[in-house]
Amino acid sequence: MSILIGLLYVVEVAVCVMLALVVMLQKPKEGGLGGALGGGMLESALGADAGNVLIKTTAVLGVIFLLNTLVLARLTSTVHSHSLMANEAAAPVATETLPELPVMPEAPISGN
Q1: Which helix (H) or strand (E) holds 37?
Q2: Is CB count within 10 Å lower at the N or C end of the chain?
Q3: Phi, psi of 85 (to 5 degrees)
Q4: Distance between CA atoms of 51 and 57, rounded to whole angstroms?
Q5: Is 25 within 8 Å of 54 (Cβ atoms)?
Q6: With contact defined as beta carbons under 8 Å apart, do 69 and 12 qualify?
Q7: Per-residue model confidence (pLDDT) at position 4
Q8: Helix crossing, 2-25 with 50-79: angle to 10°?
C-alpha cells in the first residue's frame, strides 16, 4: 500500500508542475509568459487553436489533480486511522485507597 501512496505522491507533484507551466503559458490580456517566449512561437508550434489546446489541457490536468488528491486523502486517512487512546481503555486503572481519617465527635451546639 505504501508503494501505491508513494507513486500517487510522485504523480501529484508532476501534475502540479505541469499545471503551473500550462497556466503560465496561457496568454492573458497583458501578454504574460506566453508573450515572453518569442511572441507567436506558441501559435506557430500548436497552430491557431493554441488557446483552446491550453484551456483543455488545464481542465484535464485540474481534474487529474483533484481526483489524485481525493484518492491520496482517502488512502492516507485509512493507513493512520488507529486511535491513540485504544490501548488506554484496555488497561485496568489502578486506584489508591487513602487511609481513613479519624472522625472528631461533634460538640453540641448551644442555642440561646
Answers
A1: none
A2: C
A3: -95, 5
A4: 10
A5: yes
A6: yes
A7: 92
A8: 150
Q: In whole angstroms, how far apart are CA 81 and each of 54, 84, 86, 110?
A: 40, 9, 11, 67
Set of cell numbers at residue 75: 488512502
DSSP state of 30: T
- Residue 54 C-alpha cell reads as 491550453
> Is the pTM value of this prediction over 0.70?
no
In the numeric block, which cell numbers belong to residue 73?
486523502
Q: How far apart are CA 44 and CA 46, in angstroms?
A: 6
Report the C-alpha gap between 99 and 102 in whole angstroms: 9
**Longest pairwise C-alpha distance within the chain:** 113
Contact (Cβ atoms closer than 8 angstroms) between residue 26 and residue 32? yes
